[in-house]
Amino acid sequence: MSEDHFVNPEVANAVGDWKGYVEAKLGFRNHWYPVRFSKEIAEGEAITVKLLGEALILKRIDGKVYSIRDRCLHRGVPLSKKLDCYTRDTITCWYHGYTYRVQTGELVNILAVPDSRLIGRRKITTFPVEEAKGVIFVFIGDTEDGPPPPLAHDVPPGFLDDDVMILGKHRVVNSNWRLGAENGFDALHIFIHKDTTLRHYRVFNFPIGHTPLPGAVETVEAPDGPKGVIDDFALHKPAWEGEVDGEVVVRGVRTGEASGTSAAMKTSCWLPGVLKVDAFPAPGLTQFEWYVPIDADTHIYFQTIGHEAKTDEARIKFANDFETIWKPHGLDGFNADDIWAREVTQPFYQDDYGWLDEMLCEPDVTILEWRRLASRCNRGIQTPEHLR
């Protein structure tokens, strides 16, 4: 498919009120995205990342992280191919000596042509960066007409709350970001987790699936806050047994105990593509996970768990539990099923026709509400044109 038809127009025009979602193969523009944890970039260190198709260099200078496009203005080569940083806040292209200020992108020198009329008149695109809760966020979008929206408008409620401690990990998944978001928010996908080892570390009811009842799904679209869809599991009809030809072939876990609460209380999906799971992987914890587009076929799975920890003792305990229980059995074990499912699903949607050929059923109302909200509330759609 040519770049002019990066997303198949026949498909996009056929899906109705979620056309913008189909068109967002590279993600939504003018939003904040997490890319790394703060501890991963030391003072003076530069790293490379790819985000919504944009190749970036991130560097920490005097404690603050800056982001600059990884492409020299002269001949378009990636600066990161050989990082030459002769001063703490400049990057010099290894090919012809074009030198840029990291903070602003300004061309400050051409080492062999110091009198060039280009110096001080040209600049590489830079991208706003914020750090919060030990996470580095980059804003991919347009800032010529003013500053970006607050970070609080692009993270789920609760993530930035005082005393909430955030720990996590990230990895690359070989599927489009939308398959990640829908996998997490899918009311039926609990079926693939029926053998999870999390049962060894807490007691919970675990049906093989559940269907939202009227009132379970709510949209949040206030102009001065995050936009998302909430699914309340208390208003679901759970399925405890699965039959084939009249014979029960699989059963969910039903404890019958007061302590045997559901695996989670609510899930919610928020722009630009982040899931919040309340009371998961255990009561008192909240899982926040982002599906950050790298390109059309891969995404960063940015997994975090939040816990309110007001004392040093509570923070130490949470850190220990995270490393010994919640990361290996939650983020690695439980979510490994999700990663596998996304990567296996990717070929079906790769040519876009999967969006027409899929056959959704009643519980998929949550996915459809997410697609519609994302289509009408996003701040822009990233296209190959933005990468030129």
Quick take:
This protein is an alpha+beta fold and 388 residues long. It has helices spanning 9-12, 19-23, 177-185, 312-349, 354-357, 365-377, and strands at residues 31-37, 46-51, 54-61, 64-69, 90-92, 98-101, 107-110, 126-127, 129-132, 135-140, 164-173, 204-205, 209-212, 217-220, 228-232, 236-239, 241-244, 247-251, 261-262, 266-270, 274-278, 285-293, 299-308. A hairpin with a 2-residue loop joins strand 9 and strand 10 (135-140).
Protein model, in words:
There is one protein chain. By secondary structure, the protein is an alpha+beta fold. It has helices spanning 9-12, 19-23, 177-185, 312-349, 354-357, 365-377; strands at residues 31-37, 46-51, 54-61, 64-69, 90-92, 98-101, 107-110, 126-127, 129-132, 135-140, 164-173, 204-205, 209-212, 217-220, 228-232, 236-239, 241-244, 247-251, 261-262, 266-270, 274-278, 285-293, 299-308. The strands form 7 sheets. It has a 7-stranded antiparallel beta sheet with strand order 11-23-22-21-20-15-14. The protein has a 4-stranded antiparallel beta sheet with strand order 2-3-4-8, with no helix packed on it. A 3-stranded antiparallel beta sheet has the order 1-10-9, with no helix packed on it. A hairpin with a 3-residue loop joins strand 20 (266-270) and strand 21. Helix 3 (177-185) packs across helix 4. The longest helix is centred in the last third of the chain and has 38 residues, at 312-349. It starts with 8 loop residues before the first helix and ends in an 11-residue tail after the last helix.
